[in-house]
Amino acid sequence: MKLLASMEQIMRNKQVIFNGFIEGAPKVTDMEIKMSNIELKVPKGSGAFLVKNLYLSCDPYMRGRMRDNIASYLPPFVPGQPIQGFGVSKVVDSENPNLKPGDLVSGMTGWEEYSLIQTPLQLRKIQQNDIPLSYFVGLLGMPGFTAYVGFYEVCSPKKGDYIFVSAASGAVGQLVGQLAKLHGCYVVGSAGSSQKVDLLKNKLGFDEAFNYKEEPDLDAALRRYFPEGIDIYFDNVGGPMLDAALLNMRIHGRIAICGMVALHSYSDPQGLHNVFSLVPKRITMRGFLQSDFLHLYPQFLEHVIRNYEQHKIVYIEDMNEGLESAPAAFAGLFSGKNIGKQVVCVARE
Predict the structure, then answer these.
(1) Where are the transmembrane segments (predicted)?
(2) Is the pTM of this model over 0.85?
(3) What digits encode the pLDDT tens for the residues 235-264?
(4) Distance between CA atoms of 291 and 117, rounded to whole angstroms?
(5) Is the CB of residue 247 less than 8 Å from the CB of residue 232?
(6) Using the 8-state DSSP alphabet, how is residue 207 labeled?
(7) Residue 110 in contact with residue 53, Cβ under 8 Å?
(8) What tens digit of pLDDT does each residue of 22-74 get?
(9) In whole angstroms, how large is the CA radius of gyration of the chain?
(10) Residue 341 · residue 168 · CB < 8 Å
């Protein structure tokens, strides 16, 4: 009987396995789907907990974890092991005193159907409300919090500021633009398709938007949209767009460096040509991580939920169904296939 009970607790566990370190943009073939077995019982006294993963977040920072020996704020993925990322999960079994079966949590988890978590990273319990669960890896998760602290803490906005956001329809950029409008700023966003430009202007409330792929001269494009210059540039891409923005900043302008999605190769990086603008214009350019501001998360949650419930904030998701769709969903980030926050639905509870 004991053997039968033990066998009933063993489940097949579909996983997205990391094949090996990469150079350049991630490809679907850098990952593969495999099956393993997992016991749905946590070892006694381990302090660990077991979760069923519901939603997984595809985020550009994960590309840095696919490279070896690159100075990063998170360790690289382990070849032959499941990829890791932020997710929303349901607790199945727990030896953690703060969690019980049935609890919903967000935090770092494996790209697999079930994960045994020994050391929680940015783990938060989710209080059920009318907001979709998947939003806890987007609007109310790491990307939303990145937008919040990047805009308010790094950019130090003032009412009436002229603000430019690149990758503006993505997970972070779409919220930055809406927060800026709520703050009384003039906001222009760039994106990579006419469909995304339409969303920025007609759904997300940006004052203006443009398709950077249709602009032969980014400097001229920014001069056209900001004839008096840019007060704040929220940079999600780096590369030529950052170079053009440097030329168009106003005196005492602020640049928040959030991401470098345009940087496809660490071994052959693109340099900046216009950094001389920093001196005469007294520009502040600052990189940041949302994890530096975790003490502000409750404040962020209250602010964003209130505005969302009052229909002052909307959020666009790009949802892929099934764990097997995860490699293509992630790789698609780097060619702009996603429209909004890219999420993979593993299970709906």
Answers:
(1) none
(2) yes
(3) 999 999 999 999 999 999 999 999 887 665
(4) 20
(5) no
(6) S
(7) yes
(8) 988 899 999 999 999 999 999 898 999 999 999 999 999 899 899 886 666 78
(9) 21
(10) no
Phi, psi of 286 (to 5 degrees): -135, 125
The alpha helices in the chain, defined as continuous H runs, are 2-8, 142-149, 173-182, 194-202, 218-225, 239-248, 297-309, 326-332
Q: Measured between alpha carbons, how far is 211 from 195 in angstroms, rounded to an integer? A: 9
Burial (0-12, 13-18, 19+ Cβ within 10 Å), 95: middle
- In 191-204, which positions are buried (b, 16+ CB within 10 angstroms) versus exposed (e)? bbbeebbebbbeeb
Please, are residues 320 and 342 in contact by the beta-carbon 8 Å criterion?
A: yes
DSSP assignment of 50-71 equals EEEEEEEE--GGGGGGGSTT--
Residue 143, amino acid: P
From-to residues of CATH 3.40.50.720 in the chain: 142-291
CATH number of 142-291: 3.40.50.720
CA distances from 12 to 35, 93, 114, 179 (A): 7, 16, 9, 43
237 in Cβ contact with 262 (< 8 Å): yes
All CATH 3.90.180.10 domain ranges of the chain, comma separated, are: 2-138+316-345
CATH class, 2-138+316-345 region: alpha beta
